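Preliminary data (for renewal application), cobalt (II) ion complex.
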Amino acid sequence: MAQHHEQGAYARGIRKVRTAPIQQVGPGHRNSYILEPGLWEEHDPFLFLAEDWFRRGSFDLHPHRGIETVTYVMEGKLEHFDTKTNQIDYLLPGDAQWMTAGRGVIHKEDPAPGEMVHSLQLWVNLPRAHKMTEPYYQNLRSADMAVRSEPGATIRVFSGSSGEAKAATRNIVPVTMVEFTLEPGAKVKQELPGAYNGFLFVLEGEGRFGRDGAKGETRNVLFLDSAEGHERSEIELTAVTKLRALLYAGQPLREPVVAQGPFVMNTYEEIVQAYEDYRNGKFA
Ligand code: CO
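Predicted structure:
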């Protein structure tokens, strides 16, 4: 049976396609919400995905609690400063930083002098049991990233796995994050647990996605349909032109979300506590 290895894997389709508008935030800062904040249940376990083009001075020192941020630098050199380690780290194009804010960090992301940084920052919600976990940083260097190679396709694995390629990235909430680069005509399948909720973001080019071959092109966000009740699922991608696309998928938490500024907790009381702890210097 030629199809034997795919038995039981639900072929995902695309339930919705949208294009995120880009807004000018300041003189040296443009932003686009690829995933809009506020749609917590729909995007669970993700809170939002922001795309930014920014220069030095766009962001000041700020705290976080109850989340992880995943910052992928696509262009420019980004400085990261954290008040606990008092260290400056640099992210270069192709690198990503997986930051588990847990009970609290104070940090700043700032482009190096003269640089315009183009980045994507995903906020991953943390479950109740891990919101107050110890803060933790993982710098995912481009050169060290797990890569899956198929005919006409290169798949970089930031988190989770693709085929035999597996990222070493530590997850609290299981997340698959992969970047596909496909030559025209190339076709690949990505496996995902059926329980995962996810979406694709087309960085460049045109392709056909999922069971019904939904069309997606540059800057389209394609939301995967649910595969609940299936242990395994897969999403198929076919490049029409040269295609670059990111896939983010993760295990939903299904917990109440109370988000205010940089803090995301389960209750309003925990938000009040976060502000109090921050004021009292308990973050770093
Ligand atoms: Co931040």
